[in-house]
TrEMBL record:
Gene3D superfamilies: 2,3-Dihydroxybiphenyl 1,2-Dioxygenase, domain 1 (3.10.180.10)
One biological process term in Gene Ontology: L-methylmalonyl-CoA metabolic process
Domain VOC residue range list: 1-76
Protein name: VOC domain-containing protein
Record-annotated membrane-spanning stretches: none
A molecular-function term among this protein's GO annotations: methylmalonyl-CoA epimerase activity
Organism: Phyllobacterium zundukense
InterPro entries linked to this entry: Glyas_Bleomycin-R_OHBP_Dase (IPR029068), MMCE/EMCE_epimerase (IPR051785), VOC_core (IPR037523)
Keyword Metal-binding: yes
Highest taxon of the lineage: Bacteria
Alphabetized UniProt keyword annotations: Metal-binding
Length: 77
C-alpha cells in the first residue's frame, strides 16, 4: 500500500531524507505573515490562516524562499 500525503511525496523525491518543514509559533499570525511578505516571502494558498492539526491558526510559506524547507507559522497564545 502506497501512502498519499505531502510527506510521503517528499520522501519519494528525497529517499535519503531531509527537512520537510519547520513550524514557528507566533503570537499574531497575520502580523507575522505581513512582515514576511514585506520581506519577499511567498505565502502558499490564499494567505488566509486556517485551522491546523492542533486547532490553532496556521499558514505555510513557500520552500523556495527558505532554502527548500517549507515553513509553517502557527498562532499560539
Amino acid at each position: 500500500m502506497q501512502l498519499r500525503s505531502p510527506i510521503a511525496s517528499f520522501l519519494a523525491r528525497n529517499p535519503d531524507g531531509g527537512m520537510h518543514h519547520i513550524c514557528y509559533e507566533v503570537t499574531d499570525i497575520n502580523a507575522a505573515r505581513d512582515q514576511l511578505k514585506a520581506a519577499g516571502a511567498r505565502v502558499i494558498g490564499s494567505g488566509t490562516p486556517r485551522i491546523g492539526a492542533h486547532g490553532n491558526l496556521v499558514l505555510f510559506l513557500h520552500p523556495k524562499d527558505f532554502f527548500g524547507t517549507l515553513i509553517e507559522l502557527e498562532e499560539v497564545n
